[in-house]
Structures are given as structure tokens and as C-alpha cells.
């Protein structure tokens, strides 16, 4: 919503008869100059919030005037877009969110520029409104095919949208009632591949995909009303981070795994904290032997940052005999349902009933480090976290004071139960 003290652009344009000249001063700024004192500009800007994020907004510069004391008075107004940027994105999801928010803001700016030239803010295109919602969703889904994880989420969300949405529904028919209905469907009716309702974070993810589609449709002129504004999304729940205790990891280490390379890679991840994506692409050129120490110098696939990670003698021994510099360290390692299922079977043979995935190895490393005296800053650096708050979640898992409190009440003498 544009703040007060705004002079409407329509009035500004119709009220001036001076010759118009145009200029493009930057990628994000367009101006119409009527005379030496009347300039109309729309600029995309950002403002830092107390939370550390940036709020994106449009600044409308509607010219200036000179008062009777000779003072220049500028007429500015602002439109906050309810779009935000993370100051220092700490993971791929935040980077993607930044990219999408910035692109949306630029699209809005483009639309406003075009509206300024035409002297109006609403551009109707009946043909755009006839585009089918599912077709438009599919187009945006393919445009975002940058990473497998993100693409899979778009694909999974689409399956639920197809079950709820009539195939012939056009964008112009999408309204607040439809969006609320889909939210209720995800909350009360949508099921996983089995027969259980979706988790809180899954509902959060799927609903946000449709919200992103409808927001893009509004910015692109396919929708006349921003229906997303009137329907709140799901709140994101805190996920459980499954990990192995030292005794469980010991039991797993003594248990046979169907695929030797999987066992080797999983235990290596438990000892180093490396993600699947970095272990899978690890080459011998990244494994360094420096006097009596070993370390891995690699570029994180998720954050694209260079990491220098010292590893233990046991972790190095797990890698086996050195190969050629361009050879993969873990040959034959594959990502898929078969290997994921084998991890669970391996755990069951070791007497572990937790739902362990490969990523649980990274959680295991963080917990074991903290339990054995490593400070949270060091653990954060080893895991490649950009913000310490990401690592603090693990500190909550091993909170010693909470353990002590649980046993602080003197034992009761209980009888006749």
C-alpha cells in the first residue's frame, strides 16, 4: 500500500501540458521529465529492518516545489511490497527466496513503469485471464528447475493441486475462496503416499508454491486481484533432527551393510559432518595430507562457499588408498530410494529403530562434537553454517542443564499402585 502524502500519477500526468522527454537513468529507474522542476520517477529500493532482513519497496518521486523562503520541498511517497531479502542467506532455500523476491520486485517495477507511461495503474488483458491455472503453474515449475530438491517440491505440490483444482479452471476464476479451499484441503484431506496427513512443514511448503504462482500471476497481469494478500499461509514447524548416539553409531559400525561404499560414506559423514552432496562429489584432489594432519578443501555445493575442514585419522582411514586427483573418493555411491531403504534396514539389523536418513549423519556429527566438549562456534564453522543460530538447534538437543533438571527432584516412595 502506498503511504500518504502521495500525489496520484494520473493527476500529475493529466495536469501538465509541458513537453515530455524520457530518460533511463539506471536498470531500476525510469523518469518522465516535464520541465526543470517536475520529474516523475519510480525506483526500487531496500530498507534494512531490525530483524536484519531488507524490506523491498518502491519510491515514487513526484517532483519538487520551492516555498516562499526558497526552500526546495521534494514530494516522495513509498509503496512497500511485502517482499524481503535475507541479508546473509545461510542456505540454498534462503538464496532461492532472495532470488524469487527480487525478481518479483523487479516485475512489479516493470509493471508500474508501463502504467506510468500509459497514465494508469491497471492494465487489463482478457487473454491473460483465460490462461489455465494448472498450465501457468507448470510453466513456472519448469522455470524453477534449478535444483532437484526444489523441483521435486514443486512437482509434489502440483499433484495435490491437480487433485483439488478442476482442470479447466482459468486464472481469472481464482479467488480468495479457491485459495482458502486449497489450504483447507492440504490441512484436512491431503495424504502422503501412505494414509497419513501431511506434516506441518510439508503443508507449509506446498501451499507456498501456489502462493508464489498466484503472486507471480498478479504481478504479470494475469490476475486483477492479489488474492494471496488476503489468505495467510501455514506456519513453519520445527522439524525433528534424528541423530545417532555414540553407542548407536558403534553398533552400526559393527553391523554389515549391503553396500560397503554406503557404510563407508555414512560413517565418514558422522565423523566429519559433510553433506551427501559434498561427499558424493568429493575428489582425491580435495583430500590433503599436511604433515601429521588431514583436511579437506572443497567448495560446498549448497552454499558455494570454500571450506577448509580438518578430519581425524580414523576419518582419513575410512577413505582407503588414494586414487588419482580427478577420481571420486566414493565410487559407486548413488542417491535414490534403494540406498535410503538400505540405511533403514542396516539400522534395523543394528537394533536401531529411529528413522535414520543419510542427512542424520550430519546431525550425528554436530551432537557428538558438542557432547564431547567442542564449543558451538567451532561446530558452526565445521558444519559451514553462516549463522550461529542454525547451530544452536543442536545445542538444544544436548542441553546438559535440562538433563540435570530432569533428575533433580528427590525420589518418591510410591506404593499401592
Q: Termini separation (Å)?
A: 65 Å
Strand content: 15-25%
Estimate the global geometry from the Cα principal axes.
globular
> Mean of residue pLDDT?
80
Give the spatial strand order of the biggest sheet.
1-2-3-4-5
CATH T-level fold name of the largest domain: hpI Integrase, Chain A
Task: Please give the largest β-sheet.
Answer: 5 strands, antiparallel
Cα gyration radius (Å): 28 Å
Number of helices: 16
Low-confidence stretches: 1-39, 119-124
CATH homology group of the largest domain: Intergrase catalytic core
Verbal overview:
By secondary structure, this protein is an alpha+beta fold. It folds into three domains: 9-118, no CATH class; 126-230, DNA polymerase, domain 1; 246-403, Orthogonal Bundle (hpI Integrase, Chain A). It is built from 16 helices and eight strands. The strands form two sheets. The protein has a five-stranded antiparallel sheet. A three-stranded antiparallel sheet has the order 6-7-8. A hairpin with a 2-residue loop joins strand 1 (21-26) and strand 2. Helix 4 (133-143) runs antiparallel to helix 5, helix 6 (176-188) packs antiparallel against helix 7 and helix 14 (376-383) crosses helix 15. The chain is globular and about 80 Å long. The N and C termini lie far apart (65 Å).
